Description:
Elements: H1 3-62, H2 67-72, E1 76-88, E2 91-99, E3 115-120, E4 123-128, E5 133-137, E6 145-153, H3 155-158, E7 172-178, E8 181-191, E9 194-203, E10 208-209, E11 211-215, E12 221-222, E13 242-248, E14 251-256, E15 274-279, E16 285-290, E17 295-301, E18 306-311, E19 318-324, E20 373-375, E21 381-387, H4 389-392, E22 397-403, E23 416-423, E24 428-436, E25 441-447, E26 452-457, E27 462-468
Parallel strand pairs: 6-10
Antiparallel strand pairs: 1-2, 1-6, 2-27, 3-4, 4-5, 5-6, 7-8, 8-9, 9-11, 9-12, 13-14, 14-15, 15-16, 17-18, 18-19, 19-20, 21-22, 22-23, 23-24, 25-26, 26-27
Amino acid sequence: MSIKFKNLVWLLLVFLILVILALSVINTKKNLDIKSNQIEFLKKNLNKKKSQIKNIHEKLISNNIYLEEIVFSDGINFKLKSNLDIKHNSNNYTLSEFSSDDIVFAKHPAASSSAYIDIYEENLFLVTATGQIAYSNLNSLFSEKIEMISIKSNIKNIINYAEFYKSSPFGIKDILVNEDEIYISYIKEVNSKCYNTSILVGRIDYNKINFSEFFSEEDCINKNDPFFKMNKNDKLVAHQSGGRMIAVRDEILLTVGEYRKRVLAQDESSYFGKVISINKNSKRYKIISKGHRNPQGLYINNQINKLFSTEHGPDGGDEINVIDLSNTNATPNYGWPISSYGDHYHQEKDDSRLGLSPLEKSHEKKGFIEPIKYFVPSVGISEITELPKKFTNSNNLQFIVGTMGTGKKIKDGMLSLYFFEYDNSNNKIKNEKLIPIKSRVRDIKYLSQYNSVIMFLETNSTIGILKQKN
């Protein structure tokens, strides 16, 4: 066979391969175009269905018919969905998730539902962001199914603006059970389109809880506030309302966000952008710390007399802050909106927001307290609690923090559990680790009698139970 003929054969083979590849690319592109069109169709169809459901729901509310109330009337159920093995510091844990289809409304687009939890005697209490209350004996948390019994309340007689009962950012922000009473923080419509963070309280009664106002300020932030007209990207943001509560002796500590009216965080005449302490008897409050954007978690270690606060930053700059309660001098200032390791959303080079809210990266250089940890990009930080020695097998101060966000940024730390050790002598974090669990962690409580961590996970409406592996 001549060399010329061999070369011709090779050329024909290469040509055939190129033709096959070209046809494959064309077919792949056609398939992708078809799938893209199908996805686009499904998106439009889903959005239409959402719009229809929203319309139906609004009509039901206008006729005083509440879907969650109907669903909750016979109680709600959670069924074991999955188990995830987690390893941290040579310890092996299992995260069991119990899923429910009974919680209807979410307060964030990336969530399928929103709720908060707390422990009272031998029961787990759950309150949805629209005010439905249920409880279950703690023993049921360690079976294949969690059955929760509903408790009636008078919340609808107190909170009567429509957005509260929809899949909107307006709703309940936390629950706290303390000394036979249940406290609920929520976004209150003080008057038309004007909101603040307030608290209701009711005595525990398994038949019906009658709430009354515990704490509410006259000061509120209006959707039409002139501040929001200064920049095209500004508006009232109910997600930035804070609302976390803990009990400390005769005080209820409450975090209050600034609803994106950033300048209030530095204004001591306003309680927005602060951590405050409310006396249970007088209902008067004092400012514990200022310069906060949107604190989402709060925990106190009484032995070292320090508060641990987690806080949402803007575009980047989520923080963990330590508030030393032994320091009784000037009000601790954490810098927002003068200092932040994040940027404004959609920030431009000569952004008008930088005048009043420059977001300088260093806190210390401006005379503010630095966070012990900041996250860039943001992780959607949420609740924080301490983990004792019997859970971690460590004598050091150990903490667990939840993160939220979306599935698109799991690699950045969203939809995860963040573990860290706190060095009190140096006010530093050590031995930190982010472990993805693929779900938004809205609330976390440590359950001492069962040496377990209980969570409400928003992505799939689940109760999560983290326990040591046998």
